[in-house]
Every structure is written in structure tokens, then in C-alpha cells.
């Protein structure tokens, strides 16, 4: 089973998305900190959902809109910086699991 390759590609896509946002999120419409938490790649390598968290939380909606608008730009970025073929179709979502973990950490620290 090609699970090692699957993990490598997922991690590479998450890393690329982090770099992409670091560059692109200097965009004035997103004055929040976008942190890519992981990439969920389908088993056939054709689709990927990049999950991220945003600080402050009030910027989540703007960041998600920005990310969804940037999908084709991000695919071009992946094409330029990797040899992946084909480049998976990309979607972006807020990582609510990460958000819940942060909230639990916060509550257990009190």
C-alpha cells in the first residue's frame, strides 16, 4: 500500500499551503494569522482539503473567503514548486478540531 507516499504528499501540500499563505496573506483583506494544521488528501490523490486555524477568530470568515478565492492560485503554486502530477483539486476549510483542542487546553489551564 502506498501510505508512505500518501503521508509525504499530504505533508508536502500542508507545508506548501503554509508557505503560500505566509506570502499571500499579507493581503489587506486578511489581517489575521493563518496557520495550516493539516491536509486531508483522498486515497486517489485527486482531491485535498487544506485545514487551517485563524487568529484572531474574528478573522476566520475573511480568511476562509480569501483561501477559497485563492484555490486556483494555490494549485498554480503547487505546480510551480512540485512535480506532483496531476495536482489535486484543492479546497480549504477551518480546522474546527484544532480549534476545539485549543479551547480544551485553555479550559484545562484555568
From TrEMBL:
Pfam families: RBFA. InterPro entries: KH_dom-like_a/b (IPR015946), RbfA (IPR000238), RbfA_dom_sf (IPR023799). SUPFAM superfamilies: Ribosome-binding factor A, RbfA. It comes from the Bacteria. Keywords: Ribosome biogenesis. GO terms for biological process: rRNA processing. The keyword Isomerase does not apply. This is Ribosome-binding factor A. The lineage of its organism: Bacteria, Candidatus Kaiseribacteriota.
Amino acid at each position: 500500500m502506498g501510505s508512505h507516499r500518501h503521508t509525504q504528499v499530504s505533508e508536502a501540500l500542508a507545508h506548501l499551503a503554509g508557505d503560500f499563505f505566509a506570502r499571500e496573506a499579507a493581503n489587506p483583506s486578511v489581517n489575521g494569522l493563518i496557520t495550516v494544521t493539516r491536509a486531508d488528501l483522498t486515497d486517489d490523490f485527486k482531491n485535498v482539503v487544506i485545514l487551517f486555524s485563524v487568529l484572531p477568530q474574528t478573522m476566520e470568515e475573511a480568511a476562509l473567503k480569501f483561501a477559497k478565492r485563492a484555490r486556483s492560485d494555490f494549485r498554480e503554486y503547487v505546480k510551480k514548486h512540485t512535480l506532483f502530477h496531476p495536482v489535486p483539486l484543492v479546497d480549504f476549510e477551518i480546522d474546527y478540531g484544532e480549534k476545539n483542542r485549543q479551547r480544551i487546553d485553555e479550559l484545562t489551564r484555568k
